[in-house]
Amino acid sequence: MTIEKKVAFVTGGSRGIGRAIVEKFAEEGYVVGFSYINSKEVANELINELKNKNMEVFALKFDVSNYVDCCEKFEYIYEKYGNIDVLVNNAGITKDKLFIRMSEEDFDKVTNTNLKGVFNCIKQVAKKMTKKRSGAIINMSSLAGIVGNVGQANYSATKAGVIGMTKTLAAELGPYGVRVNAIAPGFIKTDMTDKIPENIKDKIISSIPLKIIGYPSDIANLAYFLASDQAKYINGQTISVDGGLSSI
Ligand code: NAP
């Protein structure tokens, strides 16, 4: 008897946290798909690296903020792989500026990617998951969505929005066996945080109770747990992974 492999799809899986989530699910035996928007070479390298380890992975280039693009790509995934058991809405961007200087364009770009992108992707899987009476959706929020952050009016609004959407969908989809949870990372070492000047990074790290930066694998481990049966009674939660920063 062959056991059918579960399928996970991770948006923004070419780099950073998304990449660690792709690696974790692939290592644990999932068929894993991921999206990217620009990093074609990096995505291909990741595919080759994991395929060389006999893992089943695929990548699709599309913009999560484009609804039509999302419809087409998810239709392709369902046709080719038959199902999506786990959706991780990870793709996200920042366009930081003090509110006074923030342009409408910077607000729209961040909102369309970080919040509308989550809506666009969940729309493609929700009905199918409820029909199947199973599925797990994990949305990437942020510490900034819980406590706010200077220079991130756009970003923090999207990440707070993700928490609201997570709670609502947990209530709407829960009765059909679909769990929806969010993760709120603190300060994690990726390209997104590498952009921050060293002196500010040092200041942030000194304010973290554990006094260290987090790593993408710290988030990937929780994402994998939340998707698993070990978390079968966890629904509608936003779990912080931030070295204690949100608790002070
Ligand atoms: P990152 O290193 O900048 O990677 C972002 C990923 O998202 C890349 O794979 C990128 O693709 C993809 N992406 C960006 N815009 C996209 C779009 N419109 N459509 C599809 N894919 C898109 O970011 P990260 O630090 O790993 O962050 C991942 C998530 O965690 C984000 O939602 C972020 O807000 C959240 N988060 C991060 C931190 C942190 O400290 N790093 C803290 C809290 C929350 P390309 O490679 O093609 O550009």
UniProtKB/TrEMBL annotation:
InterPro entries: 3oxo_ACP_reduc (IPR011284), KR_dom (IPR057326), NAD(P)-bd_dom_sf (IPR036291), Sc_DH/Rdtase_CS (IPR020904), SDR (IPR050259), SDR_fam (IPR002347). It comes from the Bacteria. SUPFAM superfamilies: NAD(P)-binding Rossmann-fold domains (SSF51735). Keywords: Fatty acid biosynthesis, Fatty acid metabolism, Lipid biosynthesis, Lipid metabolism, NADP, Oxidoreductase, Steroid metabolism. Gene3D superfamilies: NAD(P)-binding Rossmann-like Domain (3.40.50.720). Residues 6-186 form the Ketoreductase domain. Pathway: Lipid metabolism; fatty acid biosynthesis. Belongs to the short-chain dehydrogenases/reductases (SDR) family. Catalyzes the NADPH-dependent reduction of beta-ketoacyl-ACP substrates to beta-hydroxyacyl-ACP products, the first reductive step in the elongation cycle of fatty acid biosynthesis. Homotetramer. This is 3-oxoacyl-[acyl-carrier-protein] reductase. It comes from Peptostreptococcus equinus. The gene is fabG.
